[in-house]
Specification:
Layout (H helix, E strand, L loop, with lengths): L1 H18 L3 H11 L12 H12 L6 H24 L3 E3 L9 H8 L26 E2 L18 H18 L7 H7 L20 H11 L2 E2 L20 E3 L1 E7 L3 H11 L2 E5 L7 E6 L10 E14 L4 E9 L11 E5 L11 E6 L6
Parallel strand pairs: 7-10
Antiparallel strand pairs: 1-7, 2-8, 3-4, 5-11, 6-8, 6-11, 8-9, 9-10
C-alpha cells in the first residue's frame, strides 16, 4: 500500500509535466515513480524469455551483434513492462511482438499520428441526449466492424482509424460492411492542416484522421481494400474513381465530454480517436488505467464500444472502459483490441474524437 500511496502523491506533482511531454519524458516519469531496484527480480530469466519471444514471433537476426543488441533492448523492455504493470495494475503488461524495439523505434515504425491541433473552425458535433444510453455497447456485435488489420512497420495508423470510422458509417448508411483501402490514403492523401504550415498527411510518415476525411471528401471516396490492397509502403497514387466503394457525407469533432462521446458512438457508429500509446508497447490485456499517462497524442485508433469490467483494487468496483480497435494485427493485445479506462480522459483518449457520416450508396 505504501507504494500506491507514493504513486498517488507523485501523480499530482507530475501530471502537469506529463500532459505535454514526449514519449521519452513519459518513460523517465514512470521510472521516477517506480524505483528501478524494484524490478530487477524480473530479469532473472531474461534469456529464457527472449528464447520464447523469438520462437513465438518468428524473430531472427542477421548477425550476432544485432542479436546481442536486440537482447539488450529486450531486457530493457522487460523492465519497462514491469514498471508499466506497477503503474497500471488493472491491465496485464509483459512481452509483446514489439519487445525487441526501443521506444523510439516503436514510435517511429508503429504509431504515426502527427502532433497537430484540431482546426479552430472544425465542425462540432451537435449535442445529443445521454439519458438513455445502454450500460454496455459494442459495434462488433452489430456487424459494423471489419477484422483487425495490421499496419506493419509503417506510421499509417491514422489511415486505419479513418477507414474504420468510414467502414462503420457506410454500414449504418447501407447495411453493407466493406473493408476499405488504407493504401489509397497512404499513397494519395497529402492534405495539410490549414493552421500549421507543412503539417500534411505523409503516408508512412504520419497523418491525421480529419485531414484524411477532407481528402476523401475532395477525392469522392475510397476504394475497397481488395481493389487497392495494403502494402505498408509509400508509393505513387493509383486511385481509380470508377471503383469507389464508400464516400464521406460529412464529419465533425466531438467534445471532451465522455457522455457525448458515448452518445455519438451509439448513434453514429465507430469513432476515429487519437491516443497516447506509451503503455501500448507492453500491453497484453485487461483494462489499462494508469496512474500517470501523458496527454500528447501519437496514435490513431478506432473506438468501437464501451463496457465495465476488470476489478479495480483501489476503487473496489468494476472499472468502466472504452473498447479500442487497433491496427497491429490480432497477435497484439486482446486479439488486436485495447481496453482503456473510461471517465478521466486517460492517455488523452477523449481529446481528439471524430464522427463521420457516409453517403447512402451501394459499393461495387
Amino acid at each position: 500500500m505504501a507504494r500506491y500511496s507514493l504513486c498517488a502523491l507523485l501523480l499530482f506533482a507530475a501530471v502537469a509535466a506529463a500532459a505535454g511531454a514526449n514519449t521519452d519524458a513519459d518513460d523517465i516519469l514512470i521510472r521516477q515513480v517506480v524505483p528501478e531496484g524494484e524490478v530487477e527480480d524480473h530479469m532473472l530469466n531474461a534469456e529464457h524469455h527472449f528464447s520464447n519471444f523469438k520462437a513465438k514471433f518468428g524473430k531472427t537476426y542477421a548477425t550476432k551483434e544485432e542479436h546481442d543488441h536486440r537482447f539488450g533492448v529486450f531486457k530493457s523492455n522487460l523492465r519497462r513492462a514491469r514498471l508499466h504493470a506497477q503503474l497500471d495494475p488493472s491491465a496485464v503488461h509483459g512481452v509483446t511482438k514489439f519487445s525487441d524495439l526501443t521506444p523510439a523505434e516503436f514510435h517511429r515504425q508503429f504509431l504515426g499520428l502527427k502532433p497537430l491541433r484540431l482546426p479552430s473552425n472544425a465542425q462540432k458535433a451537435p449535442i445529443l441526449p445521454t439519458n438513455n444510453l445502454p450500460k454496455d455497447f459494442d459495434w462488433r456485435d452489430k456487424g459494423a466492424v471489419t477484422n483487425v488489420k495490421d499496419q506493419g512497420a509503417c506510421g499509417s495508423c491514422w489511415s486505419f482509424s479513418t477507414t474504420g470510422a468510414l467502414e462503420g458509417a457506410h454500414f449504418l448508411a447501407t447495411g453493407e460492411l466493406v473493408s476499405l483501402s488504407e493504401q489509397q490514403l497512404v499513397d494519395c492523401d497529402h492534405v495539410c492542416d490549414p493552421e500549421e504550415y507543412g503539417a500534411c498527411d505523409s503516408g508512412c510518415n504520419g497523418g491525421l484522421m480529419n485531414n484524411a476525411f477532407e481528402y476523401i471528401l475532395g477525392a469522392g471516396g475510397v476504394q475497397r481494400e481488395k481493389d487497392y490492397p495494403y502494402t505498408g509502403r509509400d508509393s505513387s497514387c493509383k486511385f481509380d474513381k470508377s471503383k469507389i466503394a464508400a464516400s464521406v457525407a460529412n464529419y465533425s469533432v466531438i467534445s471532451l465530454d465522455e457522455e457525448q462521446i458515448a452518445a455519438n458512438l451509439v448513434k453514429n457508429g465507430p469513432l476515429a480517436v487519437a491516443i497516447n500509446a506509451v503503455y501500448m508497447q507492453t500491453y497484453i490485456g485487461g483494462v489499462s488505467c494508469p496512474y500517470i499517462c501523458g496527454k500528447h497524442l501519437d496514435h490513431g485508433v478506432l473506438l468501437v464500444g464501451y463496457g465495465e469490467g476488470a476489478y479495480a483494487p483501489i476503487r473496489f468496483k468494476e472499472k468502466p472502459y472504452w473498447i479500442i480497435k487497433n491496427s497491429w494485427g490480432e497477435s497484439w493485445g486482446e486479439n488486436g483490441y485495447y481496453k482503456i479506462c473510461r471517465g478521466k480522459n486517460v492517455c488523452g483518449v477523449d481529446s481528439m474524437v471524430s464522427t463521420v457520416g457516409a453517403i447512402h450508396t451501394s459499393s461495387q
